[in-house]
Amino acid sequence: MSAEVPVSLPKWFRTTVATEDAAPRGVFSLLVFLGVSRAISMILAYWYFAVLIQDWIVNDTLSSQTPLLGMLICLTGAWLLQRVRAHQTEQAKATLLLTLEKRLIAQFSCQQHALIRQQSAYYWQTLWLQHLPAIADWHYEYRVQQSIAAVVPILVLAVIGWMNPVIGAGLLVALPVVPLFMIVVGKGAAHLHQRHFLAFERLGGMFVDRLKALPMLASFVAYDRQKALLNRASEQLNNATMRVVTVAFLSNTVLDFFATLCVALVAVFIGFTLLGEIQVGPEIDLLTGLWILLTVPLLLSEMKALGQIYHQKALAQSAAEALGELVSEPHDCLASRPAGSFGGEHFADFSLASPKLTASMLSISKGDWVRLEGASGAGKTLLLEALAGQRDASHRLNCQYVYLSQQVALLPGTLRENLCLDDHYADERLWKVLSQVQLSPWAKQLENQLDTPFGEHPPLSGGEAQRLAIARLLLRDADVWLLDEPTAHLPQEQHVAIIELLRVCCSSKTVIWASHKTLPECWFDKVWLIENAEVQQR
Q1: Where are the alpha helices (DSSP H) in 54-142?
Q2: What range defines the domain where residue 177 resides?
């Protein structure tokens, strides 16, 4: 899979992900409104608190109940607004995540083998468990906080500048330093996050591959060598993790330093003004000075909150690069197939854009057996995937088909579930196809027969797994069979047995068969040869 790097993360989200069902603008605007409203409630609460202190210390009187009641109402309102915002955020993230998962499932269903075989199982697991949540976190946490961090400081600056232009002007000069350092440090963090994800993916993929190859490692006594490789990969991941943590710590430290410095300067200015040592700008009394001193941290707190989740942008950038168009709104699935019977196809000027594959003429009639030839990597699998509708090509088979590949996907469920694959068939039909592929004696010896769970280690040899896959195909009863080197990983004896079985099972079908191994030439009516990205019919 080759996903293009988005020019802009917001632009990628807007053009690829954002729809009313996935990320309604009303929800985003509501979250921003709740965040700004909470800040306004805190500003009013600080004002009422300053009034209380002014009456108590300066006027030497007990304040009326109005400021106290107003402060309590504002603080309660701020707490409620924060709770509502947190609840709405979780709901919105869950909705977006569910939509992205459905779209990714739709892409898997559409492109199937053409998509999944391009990456390891660990890659797709990471995509599902980390990248999709990263997009939801970025949109409803980082982007919302980004908007709040833009609105609240302007609002606070406007109020402070109206009450004391000198302090407002000083804050206006000092404030841009904070986002400037956030951007500088953030860009470095984004690069480190990408390297960290790459190291994490490599280690995970390497570990999964070694687990699958344990029998081979035992045969070649290669445990120590592979352990050293895993240790080196683990050390690289540890180093990458520490670099990310270091930059994140640096980001928070920089933000805290400038926020503390800014508040300290304002406090010094207000203190010396109240003492009469400085007389610049409007007169400052205890009420105004205390309120400004309480409000200035609020001005910076929204930026600090943005800085604390700035890493979400880097994670989302990596996720966008990995996801590309996979989470775009589903369109008509390429692999959806009509239920009509196959009557033959004639493809003139067949073309597949990426990877490039062309043919001036491809024709196949009902009942034909076509041998697909070509060097390894020439494009045999690409052509089969294109004909199956799993790739966006100029032509595709306009009928029901079944696809048998080199490696059989076995589920940890029961034998019945592995045969039915979410469809429903009577037991008589299941036993019939098992008998056709010569697996019924094996199935009858299982503890629970059709309801025997396979678990993580299915009790089948390579040849038996291929027979089970052929049984799946027989259940679907399609007119066209696409065979993509189904015996590539089997020894010669099993290869001969499986091809003979296939010859019997699909003798009345239309077959396109790609294989590097020897097949009887008398079986085939036509040969399609792939050379230099071109398919030639013989």
Answers
A1: 65-111, 113-116, 121-126, 132-137
A2: 9-323
Q: And the tokens for 20? A: 């009313």
* 142 in any annotated domain: yes
In order of 157, 178, 264, 309, 516, the CA distances from 173 in angstroms are 11, 11, 15, 25, 72
Query: Do the Cβ atoms of 160 and 292 come closer than 8 Å?
Result: yes
- What is the CATH number for 513? 3.40.50.300
Identity (one letter) of the amino acid at 415? Answer: L
Question: Angle CA(459)–CA(463)–CA(466) in degrees, nearest 5?
Answer: 90
Q: Are residues 227 and 368 both part of a single domain?
A: no
Cα gap 53→381, rounded to integer Å: 78
**Token representation of residue 307:** 């800085």
Q: 């779209």: which residue's tokens?
A: 103
Nearby residues of 348 by Cβ (< 8 Å), 6 or more positions away? 360, 361
pTM for this one? 0.68
Residue 260 · residue 219 · CB < 8 Å: no
Q: Which residues of 396-433 are buried (b: 16+ CB within 10 A; e: fewer)?
A: bbebbbbbbbbbbebeeebbbebbbeeeeeeeeebbeb
Helix (H, G, I), strand (E, B) or coil at 326: coil
Phi, psi of 23 (to 5 degrees): -140, 75
Question: Is residue 351 domain-shared with residue 313, that is, in the same domain?
Answer: no
The answer as to whether 336 is a domain residue is no
Whether 196 shows a pLDDT value over 60: the answer reads yes
- Quote the CA–CA distance of 65 and 52 in Å, as a whole number: 9
- Other CB atoms closer than 10 Å to residue 468's CB: what's the count? 23
Q: What one-character DSSP code corresponds to residue 4?
A: P
C-alpha closest to that of 171 among 245, 264, 253: 264
Distance CA(268)–CA(273), nearest Å, equals: 8
Assigned domain for 330 exists: no
Instruction: Examine the fold and report which residue of 290, 323, 356 is the final residue of a domain before the chain moves on.
Output: 323
109 and 189 share a domain? yes
pLDDT tens for 437-448 read 878 888 888 778
Q: Are 399 and 269 within one domain? A: no
**pLDDT tens column, 428-471:** 888 888 888 878 888 888 778 878 887 766 777 777 787 888 88
